[in-house]
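haha ok so turns out i had the wrong file open the whole time. this is the CORRECT one, sorry everyone. sequence first:
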Amino acid sequence: MKFTDKLLPREKVFRDPVHDYIYVQHQVILDLINTKEMQRLRRVKQLGASSFTFHGAEHSRFTHSLGVYEITRRICDLFLRNYPTKEPGDGLWDDSERLVALCAALLHDIGHGAYSHTFEHIFHTNHEMITQEIITSPKTEVNKVLRKVDPELPKQVAAVINHTYSNPQVVQMISSQCDADRMDYLLRDAYNTGASYGNFDLTRILRVMRPYSGGICFDISGMHAVEDYIISRLQMYMQVYFHPVSRSMEVILSHLLKRAKQLADKMPTNDRSTPYLLMPFFQNNFDIDDYLKLDDGVLNTYFIHWVDSKDSILSDLADRFINRRPLKSVEFNSDTKKLIPKLQKLIKQVGFDPEYYTDTNNSFDLPYDAYDPKKKHHATQIELRRPDGTMVELSKVSRLVNAVTGKQLGDERFFFPKEMLNSVNNIEIFQPIYEEFQKHIKNNQLT
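then structure:
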């Protein structure tokens, strides 16, 4: 379908530390930015608990969403300039798809909840499904803005998020192994965390990107820029997204919400510490209005109140999260995993409930994955276009990418109270337990 929207009399610009300027030319984009659902994203951190590790990582889902929109806008401009369609079915860029692509780019994360992935894990929500609901629900301002352009526009934008949209070029702009979403969050997260190894040559990648009938490919002359992007992504996952302290704070957050959920029925009424806005989630009976009332600040307010809770576990976990007292963690493998029950018993003997003060956590990522028809959920591989027009998959010609293709990188960690490693200020009666515990840890690994 072809969608058109009036242009602004004068384009609007947003100053941005990553892209310099973000240009808004369509009325619908400006109207979407000003909806309450989009403005809520200002109050949801992009990296959740990672700001406890990288103090600069205070940027929001809102800034990231604008960045994804801007990269998508640049892709559309380059495609229109260099690869405009000449006849139906030629595999080139039909600029009537622009509005769907820009709206989907801007709205792709609108369903993220407070503290994003940790919240999803505890309450079994799905941000992509909620994103589609926000876009298609007549109750939302986002839906009203889209329907003002065309009654069919919300359904088509939601189809892009759901990967069912008819044009794979639009889908792959927003969701593929080298898309506007990933390119923005890598550059933005690198900038805000100070992790310079997350940087790559965005301008060069956009210059070699091109549409074809199967989606989006890249000129083989730009292979090294794409290689650099893949390795930057690998480094960011290893050094930032999988950082042990960030994961530790997520474990505390997860256990804090789990404890609150367990105590919810016993919490006093007419008390400021009672989490009324969370009750629909504790009772597994929430709607989109309940979901949109939550942000990081709402949760933090409840956590501050819970520090004074009469429940010692809830109080302590809230204190650990609010005041940044992470759990300690060590790596383990299939051989040393059998030690964990023993260590949990030792932890229990000194007074910590293992259910709330220990956890195992694995973080693995595929830096790049080639298409495999045998897989149930295969990845959209990166295709390079040779001068004669034929295609070759990236890892077939890049030794660097081939070295990481299909290889899971990451570790498994056991989390426990840091007090178990203290050599001073311990209660003397527990000293033999601490010593027994510490015998099984060497060089940050279970032994």
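The CA atoms of residues 234 and 367 lie 5 Å apart.
again sry for the mixup
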